[in-house]
């Protein structure tokens, strides 16, 4: 075996190890210590709008998408198996391709989800039809709920479920394109589940995030509003470290990426531009940011050694050290 092939195999082993650890270390410090979330059930995932939106840099609830760098990073690793070096334009192209891939996956998933909530197969879903399926996914008796809704009876829901339903109802009517008929077709249902597919829903998502974070009611976000921690107590040093990381990450994102004119204020337009997954300018900035961090030889490209060495920056995972050490030993 030639020296080149030996080096190739060793790099391939290191990349394979990196893939393994990436798949097992997602969502690191994505939200404050007192706001951890339980994974949704399979049924929930089929008919509920996802909080995490692949290819978008912010979650539906206003938290930073900690998997965004990982999603980009995985594509860069795949490309390295063939090219071993990428400049900003190449990385921008891969980011855009990955986003388009997520869009296509969402459309396929939406078709299955739509059929799950459209029992009469008439091509439209009413709010009541969706509400019955949602409550069934939460453990309520489907026939009983359908009968109560039909007769306009009190559903006797717990407070948390009722709040979720109210939020979903608001989003439902936002997805109902003019002229509003309170029915969603398959395309409108796609906007309901995946607001990144609709400019109108993207604006609604921005409005909701600003509403949740805006403390003085001016419909703009200051740094202090953007990094303010939710009310709650921190029980130990590990939880404090998580909160400190959360604040630091949001501060950096606010100052370096979202606040385009660097005036200390984020407007709805700036937030919308930041969250638009098909914004090519954002993709290029993301690529340049990754190169600026890891380009040790200053050739304006990312090469395999640099990607492996700075994998912790791209993934936020301490377990990346093991894959990197394997590579360095070779």
TrEMBL record:
One Pfam family from the record: EF-hand_5
Region forming the signal peptide = 1-30
Q: What is its main location?
A: Golgi
For this protein, the record's CDD domains field holds:
EFh_CREC_cab45
GO CC aspect terms = endoplasmic reticulum; Golgi lumen
What's in the keyword line of the UniProt record?
Calcium, Glycoprotein, Golgi apparatus, Metal-binding, Repeat, Signal
The record's subcellular location field reads: Golgi apparatus lumen
Q: Which PROSITE patterns match?
A: EF_HAND_1, EF_HAND_2
Q: Alphabetically, which GO biological process terms does the record hold?
A: calcium-ion regulated exocytosis
Q: Where is the EF-hand domain?
A: 105-140, 206-236, 256-281
The text of the family note is: Belongs to the CREC family.
This chain's protein is named 45 kDa calcium-binding protein
Source taxonomy lineage?
A: Eukaryota, Metazoa, Chordata, Craniata, Vertebrata
Q: Which gene encodes it?
A: sdf4
